[in-house]
Amino acid sequence: MKTCLSGSSFLLPLFLLCLLGQRTSGEVVFDNFGPNDSYDGGSGRSINWVVESPGSSFNMGMGTAARFQVSGGSYFLSSITLAMGNIYFGGTNNLAISIRADNGGLPTGSLLETVVVHPTDLTADYLVVTYPSSLEPVLIAGGNYWLIAEPADLNLVNGENNAAFDWYWSGTLGFAGNRQFNFTTEGWYDWQVFPNTLVPAFRIEGTVVPEPGTLSLLLVGLGLVAFRGWKRLQAVPSRPNENVSSARWRACA
């Protein structure tokens, strides 16, 4: 079967690559690591889930969150990187890391994505881990967002899901907070946020959202390609008793 490939058809993929090429490379949206991904491993914010027995006063659950702002344009989220460690040896990977929009200074806005649940690589202390985004939600320029780490499995019966992690300090100040689990009501207390406190180390990477002008050029280019193809077909004269398909076959020859 013969395929018609005009010069315009060859130009189209190149045109698309030129316009959307910026979507293929990641850029740093936010980063508070030190040089070479250094951080303060002396301490950090805790994420834990510990159940001794139902009703025990030793039961505890805690999540933590850190805020960041998007500058320099809007981005599709591509990955998150954190300085974390598993400090409950023999514990589980009871952890979920997500991104939410800011809501009046609190991490209670709309959920953009739960990036990772039950990570399998947090098996030791003092690690720098990266998790890719699968949904690639849009982070809007100038917007405030929260990176949240908290237990994924709220097992109230026994210690099968016990876990504890540290999210190590970056050495920089900013918005961060935590919330504790209320084992009496079986729900979370409100977030406690501190506006000028040590913030844990993390990095957000994304790919630039094309500007409206870029999308307009893309539509114009597609229209021109389609128009040239239509004009080429219209320019082929028909022979007696020749149907349209045959004429188009000769146009491709």
Cα distance spanning the termini: 12 Å
Query: What would the average pLDDT be, to the nearest integer?
Result: 84
SS strand fraction: 35-45%
Give me the secondary-structure category. alpha+beta
How would you describe what is shown here?
The chain is an alpha+beta fold and 253 residues long. The protein has 2 domains: 7-19 and 211-252, no CATH class; 32-208, Jelly Rolls, CATH 2.60.120. Helix content is 18%, strand content 41%. The protein has 3 helices and 13 strands, in the order αβββββββββββββαα. α1 packs antiparallel against α2. The protein is globular. 25% of the residues are buried. Residues 1-8, 10-24, 213-218 and 247-251 have low confidence and may be disordered.
Please name the defining characteristics of this protein.
253 residues; alpha+beta; Jelly Rolls; 2 domains; 3 helices; 41% strand; globular; disordered N terminus
In short:
The chain has helices at 7-20, 212-234, 244-252, and strands spanning 27-31, 40-50, 60-69, 75-86, 96-101, 111-117, 127-132, 138-139, 144-150, 163-182, 187-188, 192-200, 202-208. The protein is of the alpha+beta class and 253 residues long.
